[in-house]
Amino acid sequence: MKRILVVGGGLIGLRHLEAVKAHPECSLVGLADPNMSLEVDAPRFASMAEVTASVDGVIIATPTHLHAAHGMEAAARGWPMLIEKPVAGSLQQARELAKVLQDHKIASLVGHHRRYHRVVQQLKSCLDSGQIGGVVTVQVIWAMRKPDAYFQGNWRTQDGSPVMINLVHDIDILRFAIGEIVQAKALRGRSQRGAVRIETGAIAFGFETGAVGTVAFSDATPSPWGFEAGTGENPNIGATHQDMMWITGTKGALSFPSMTLWQGEDWGQAARKISTTAEKNVKVPLDAQLDHFLEVIDGAEPMIDVADATKTLEVALSLEAELAGQSEMGRVQV
Fold first, then answer.
1. DSSP track, 120-172
2. Which of 180, 289, 306, 307 has the fewest CB atoms inside 10 Å of its own CB, making it the most exposed?
3. Considering the entire predicted model, what is its pTM?
4. Dihedral sign, CA of 11, 14, 19, 25?
5. What residues pair up with 124 in beta bridges, in sequence order?
6. Domain boundaries, the chain
7. Per-residue pLDDT at 150 exceeds 90
């Protein structure tokens, strides 16, 4: 039995807490959160400093700007950690935390939970095995209309860019399935809500493999295309089960998440559709992630540790900064 402490009593923290309580190989140490009025069926601590019980691993689900500080505190106590994404509030914080963990040989896992979707792992396996040859191009669409109430009376009114909230996940899947991103350029689109924040844009990527790709995104337009809609992952977002990623290779192409596969030679003959079936999740990705965290505590290689997640954060932050420096139509502000 692994003794797990959960830090942070927000929506995702409480989901982690319930997952730990339900897991047959876990024992919940308790919940650490300064809001002691939170009503949960678990021992309560205002902070990690109050915890005197033995801890085998800690799940950090506090606000992003606190991730690094709480990771450092857990590292000082020698606790392996699962940190929610994004891994930190800044690149410097993420790098400092990664160095401390490396120097003290403390295991870490970062909650990019989409890597635990069976169909995402199937995508990576398909590309790694060369079923479409070497990847040449990739196109992604993430287009949803978030409700107006999502932005009212909270931090999202000014800073709720879909880059750090949503696209950080797509960036991580691209890194996971295709390879490291070595170039990224962005163009900002017009706001449909009259918002100051970034709302719509287009991104061009270059991968170290030589592949190139694009992402078109907006949180102001209803559409059937996006990871959540395509996979049905989020119960708050209507599922359409439409593809949202299209990848071409030297021997064929595929679309995701349907995993529709095509193979061919040249334009003289139509590409052939190959019969494939998209794999279904055996477990909820968050539960599969917890299974893996227990393995990481025992010394297994993490699916994505703090150092790896820092690379995803670096790409997302660079795009956020580039878009923030543009006017709505992409003209540089002076």
1. HHHHHHHHHTTTT-SEEEEEEEEE-B--GGGGTTSTHHHH--HIIIIIHHHHH
2. 180
3. 0.92
4. positive
5. none
6. 2-106, 116-282+315-324
7. no
